[in-house]
């Protein structure tokens, strides 16, 4: 009969089949733990790091976050290129974090630049103004949701090689390896309402805006007239659009709205033109998000019943 080695004495005796099964389970469970690290460390070429940072357009007040910062090269290079900005690297490999913090200290950037041992999904993104990523594409797709939900509108997101799927880039460099850039859009979709004064009366505009990433479309109702908002543009929190429609006695009024989305308000100006021969009037414009939209309220206009033959 085969004898168990000395270190197994006292352990329950398993059959060879059970031992193989346990070994397989051990390998699977080790891999499950290893999967937290969604992609391995491979450093970006320094030329590509510089291209990414040029596309990001670094400014003094920037706070750059690299999700999956590896040996820290992107954040460190940003700190070298701009001697004022601050940076954070988020990295799941503790040794790389130690190495990156040591490099920051050696170069004298440790006041401005820190590397955290953290899963990118747990990173607090609200201070970031620039987010860089070069991870496996599926991981970047999942982080896309987090970035859109948590990053401040206007934050620039720059990736290397892979894009972010249906969130189309605001800028891309088509030479290999590709570099993409997005501006995190504000949450503009929903019901908005505002008033504008004409002929001594306040006219209420009730809108319905639909948003798909940075693309926004909208319709509006003023009194019992309805119209479409044209040329809507949203970049970060900056929004602009045009409207030509009859308001009160004026037919048609050309409006050009421009302002900023800030949570549940939009504020800016509207340039109003009643007749092409006149000079436009610029009025302050303030819209608020509403729970319901008067766009859908009954018009009170009775539709004619079909004629009985
Ligand atoms: C391809 S390297 C890129 C390193 C660096 N950003 C660059 O461009 O040189 C990806 C890095 O992401 C790290 N990583 C993978 N999954 C992560 C996660 N869930 N959270 C944080 N870091 C992660 C890896 O350990 C690796 O260092």
What does this structure look like?
The chain has 309 residues and is α+β, with helices and mostly antiparallel strands. The protein has two domains: 46-183, Vaccinia Virus protein VP39 (Rossmann fold), CATH 3.40.50; 190-296, Quinohemoprotein amine dehydrogenase alpha subunit, domain 2 (Lipocalin, Beta Barrel), CATH 2.40.128.120. The chain contains five helices and 15 strands. It has helices at 16-34, 46-56, 73-81, 94-106, 137-150; strands at 63-67, 86-91, 113-117, 130-133, 156-160, 171-173, 179-183, 190-198, 201-212, 215-222, 225-235, 238-247, 250-262, 265-273, 281-290. Strands 8-9-10-11-12-13-14-15 form an eight-stranded antiparallel barrel. A seven-stranded mixed sheet has the order 3-2-1-4-5-7-6, covered by helices on one side. Residues 1-14 and 19-35 have low confidence and may be disordered. S-adenosylmethionine binds at residues 37-39, 41-44, 66, 68-70, 73-74, 90-93, 96, 119-120, 134-135.
């Amino acid at each position: 009969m085969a004898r168990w080695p000395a270190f197994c004495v006292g352990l329950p005796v398993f059959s060879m089949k059970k031992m193989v099964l346990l070994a397989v389970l051990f390998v699977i469970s080790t891999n499950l733990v290893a999967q937290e690290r969604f992609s391995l460390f491979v450093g970006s070429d320094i030329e590509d790091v510089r291209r990414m940072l040029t596309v990001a357009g670094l400014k003094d007040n920037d706070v750059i976050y690299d999700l999956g910062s590896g040996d820290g090269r992107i954040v460190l290079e940003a700190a070298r290129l701009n001697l004022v900005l601050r940076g954070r690297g988020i990295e799941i490999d503790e040794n790389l974090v130690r190495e990156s913090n040591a490099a920051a200290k050696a170069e004298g950037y440790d006041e401005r630049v820190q590397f955290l041992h953290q899963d990118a999904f747990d990173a607090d993104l609200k201070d970031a103004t620039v987010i860089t990523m070069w991870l496996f594409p599926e991981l970047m797709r999942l982080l896309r949701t987090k970035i859109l939900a948590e990053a401040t509108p206007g934050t620039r997101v720059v990736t290397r090689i892979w894009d972010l799927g249906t969130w189309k880039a605001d800028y891309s460099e088509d030479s290999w390896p590709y570099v993409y850039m997005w501006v995190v859009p504000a949450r503009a979709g929903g019901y908005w309402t505002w008033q504008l004064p004409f002929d001594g009366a306040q006219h209420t505009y009730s809108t319905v805006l639909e948003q798909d990433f940075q693309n926004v479309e909208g319709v509006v109702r003023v009194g019992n007239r309805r119209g479409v908002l044209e040329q809507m543009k949203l970049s970060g929190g900056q929004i602009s659009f045009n409207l030509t429609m009859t308001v009160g006695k004026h037919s048609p009024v050309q409006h050009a709205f421009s302002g900023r989305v800030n949570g549940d308000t939009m504020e800016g100006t509207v340039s109003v033109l009643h007749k092409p021969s006149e000079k436009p009037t610029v009025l302050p414009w303030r819209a608020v998000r509403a729970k319901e939209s008067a766009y859908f309220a009954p018009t009170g206009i009775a539709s004619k019943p079909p004629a009985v033959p």
